[in-house]
Amino acid sequence: MSTDRTGLESIVQEGSAFETIQRRLVDQGEQLRERVSGLNKAREDIFGSAGMSVLGRARARTESNAVARDVVRLGDKLLFGFNLQLGLRKTLAIEDVFRLYHLNDGDSGFEMTEAAIDGSFLSNDRFATDFRELQQYYNTATLSQLVILKGMLLMAFRIGDKLDDLRVFRWELKPDGEVSRYIDNVVSGILPIRIVSVFRGKPWVATARFKAVHRI
Fold first, then answer.
1. Is the dihedral of CA 191, 192, 198, 204 positive or negative?
2. How far apart are CA 102 and CA 111, in angstroms?
3. Which DSSP string corresponds to 122-156?
4. How far is residue 134's CA from residue 184's CA, in Å, rounded to a whole number?
């Protein structure tokens, strides 16, 4: 009987200790939230604040089960890039990887309607030939990134194990953002313009452990 009582007392003590720790963590979380909120308000008072909100939603539909990789705006159209498994097919077509959409802003919200590839810049004969060669020599190539940089549209495909093993298709853009002409395709090693990360214009800076600040 004494053994049962001792076990019960131990459970009660452990439960009480857990509740105490939980309460302390909750209190510390509230204090931290208040401090962060105060810092954020002070920042807004000094630098101002620009609110962000979702203006609308739209869905890009595809016939195949593809994974969207990137999107860029070209004039009044959106160019989507996808990655799709070959499956039983030997090669992928241009329309398997790229899709053009019109973005319509109506009273009922945003709506995307697919634009025809035939007659668009994607139907360029030289580009079609280069794209087929990409599939022929690099059958595991996948779309890595779509970039608009220095008046060009860059389509980067990863062709090797390294992140910088890229073959890039280059297009010249008009001032209004529409595609003017197909330039060429080059490997990343001879590309004069580096494919940049999402942190465009912000180069990485090497850091070290001694630079860490251990406080909130």
1. positive
2. 8
3. GG-HHHHHHHHHHHHH-TT-EEEEEEEETTEEEEE
4. 13
Number of H helices, E strands in the chain: 3, 8
Instruction: Give 84's Cβ-side CA count (13 Å radius).
Output: 23
pTM over 0.90: no
Place of tokens 């008009």: 174
The DSSP result for 55-109, as a single string, is --------SS--EEEEEEEETTEEEEEEE---TT-SS--HHHHEEEEEEEEETTE
Which residue would you say has higher pLDDT here, 69 or 203?
69
Rounded distance between C-alpha atoms, residue 207 and residue 198, angstroms: 20
- Count of Cβ atoms closer than 10 Å to residue 154 Cβ: 22
Kindly report, residue by residue over 112-167, the tens digit of the pLDDT: 888 999 999 999 999 999 999 998 888 888 899 999 988 999 999 998 888 778 89
The pair of three-digit structure tokens given for residue 82, joined into one six-digit string: 């996808």
pLDDT band, residue 207 (cuts 50/70/90)? confident
